[in-house]
Design a protein that fits this description.
This protein is of the alpha/beta class. The protein is built from five helices and ten strands, in the order βααααββββββββαβ. The protein is 24% helix and 15% strand. The protein is globular, with a radius of gyration of 17 Å.
Length: 186
């Protein structure tokens, strides 16, 4: 399977999310024997259907995702400008995970289980303006993890267990690395 999910819980049930967003489809789903993982995969692969507005937003918040290895297979993914992956169980970001998201301006990875940010985690996100990494478990950030993000103006690292020294050093690295004069760290 391309998308891994955890078993549904009361707080994070992808089928409940589908029911709220697409009640007609949810009724058909309830009558079938399809697993919630396959339902999510089908919805994601039919991105044209779940596009929320003309600015190309995709909200996958609270879908119990642990991995997104196939996100680049989504139809029209290169047009996506806003991706919400908050409140999932994502633990790592692979090198090519965002390779087709060159138009992405906002990325929300808050409330996941990320522990580190590698050198190339965001290297393809050349248009990224706003990055929310709050409330993860990030302890290690590669000194050049954000060096490819020339348009980045806002990064939220709130509620991550990074030591004060690492935060100050990271702020200096970020300011020296990024060319956007409006850049701010939260």
């Amino acid at each position: 399977m391309i998308y891994e999910t955890t078993p549904p819980t009361q707080d994070c049930n992808p089928l409940t999310k589908v029911k709220k967003l697409y009640p007609d489809i949810a009724l058909a789903i309830e009558k079938s024997e399809i697993s919630h993982t396959l339902i999510i995969q089908d919805l994601i692969n039919n991105y044209e259907f779940i596009r929320q507005d003309p600015r190309h937003h995709l909200n996958l918040s609270r879908f119990c995702l642990t991995a997104l290895d196939g996100i680049n297979q989504i139809r029209n993914i290169n047009e996506l400008e806003n991706l919400n992956l908050s409140n999932n169980y994502i633990t790592s970001l692979k090198f090519t995970l965002f390779s087709h998201l060159t138009a992405l301006k906002e990325l929300d990875l808050s409330n996941n289980q990320l522990t580190s940010l590698d050198l190339h985690a965001f290297s393809y996100l050349i248009a990224l303006y706003n990055l929310n990494l709050s409330n993860n478990q990030i302890t290690v950030i590669h000194p050049n993890a954000f060096s490819y993000l020339e348009n980045l103006a806002i990064i939220n690292l709130w509620k991550n267990p990074i030591s004060a020294n690492d935060k100050q050093a990271g702020a200096s690295i970020l300011r020296n690395t990024l060319s956007n004069p409006n850049f701010m760290i939260r």
